[in-house]
Each structure stands twice: as C-alpha cells, then as structure tokens.
C-alpha cells in the first residue's frame, strides 16, 4: 500500500531516509536546510540533533543564528551567541536584514550577550 506524502520533494525526502537508515550518509551544506525542514515536519528529533551538530561545526554565524531561532535549537543558539565577541558584531547583526526575522526571545538573547561583552 502506498502512502502519499504531499508537499515534499522526492530527492529531499530521499536524503532524509538515507540519514535515518544505516549507512555512511552525512549531512552536508547541500542537504542541511531541507533535512532540517523535513525533520521538523516529521518531528524527527534525532535527525534535527544531527543537523544542529553539523551547523555548530560550520561558520555561518548569521544564517545559523536564524536557523537556531526558527527551529528552537538551544545548543546552536548558545554557540552562535558565544561566538559574538565584540559590541561591533552585535551592532552589525542588529543592522542586518536577518535581525528583523528573529523572535523577541532571540533579540533579547542578543541584547543579553551585548551586556556581557
């Protein structure tokens, strides 16, 4: 019996399945965004944790902070906030277009980080 999964791109879903079944498949820059979207959609916490670990190892600060906010990833959020080391970085972040998309909680966390620098 077939089960139709609507609004999911076949190739993206295949990447997700390859992650959860035994094998040597890893999350990459190419797959991380759609893996996270599908992991969130299908409530796959283990896959989301793998994606979070991958992002923690990368250096995409603004994008990762946005993803941490969007997917409620506390470890990634903390990692990104700790990577802010100057008030100038906070001011630049606040002027960036991505700042407007942050939740009030994330904006508060950024202000808290500014107070500790």
From TrEMBL:
Gene3D superfamilies noted in UniProt: Potassium Channel Kv1.1, Chain A (3.30.710.10)
Protein name (database record)? BTB domain-containing protein
Signal peptide (from-to): none
Species for this entry: Pristionchus entomophagus
Question: Sorted alphabetically, which Pfam families does this protein's record hold?
Answer: BTB
Q: Which residues form the BTB domain?
A: 2-58
Give the source's domain of life in one word.
Eukaryota
* PANTHER family (alphabetical): BTB DOMAIN-CONTAINING PROTEIN-RELATED, HELIX LOOP HELIX PROTEIN 21-RELATED
